[in-house]
Amino acid sequence: MLTETLTLFSHCKPGDTAFTSGGLRDFFEYRDLGIADATHGKVVAHLVRAANAPEKGTGWHRHEADFHIVVMTKGWARFMYEDQETLVQAGDVVHQRPGIRHFLFDYSPDMEYLEIVGPADFKTLDVEAPCAVPDPTPWDKPAAT
User: What is the predicted pLDDT for the residue at 1?
Assistant: First the structure.
């Protein structure tokens, strides 16, 4: 019977961690789920949600990661994966193969997704654009009072 493990038990409830700014993108907020600590850096898992309307998007980039999935939990987002536009809606799961060039360029105000990446300290590198990117959908602005 296995009595030792290289990872720890982790249980993160909604009130345990808060959404904060200061992550990879300044127009998103991130909620750490404690997985990087529990796996000693093998995997990171966080919730990502829209904080501001899309203007420039993420830009073309790729990640140096062995594993990367996105689970859309609320709303929707439009990505370019290489030269393919992809609409990802609540309930959809995307596996981003290592090194795939992509660009998240549009999303709904309620967009939220779970991102799981290994290793936890993965790198993000800007890359040359393989194609043009459509414009984002403008968010409705509140009426002036």
Answer: 45
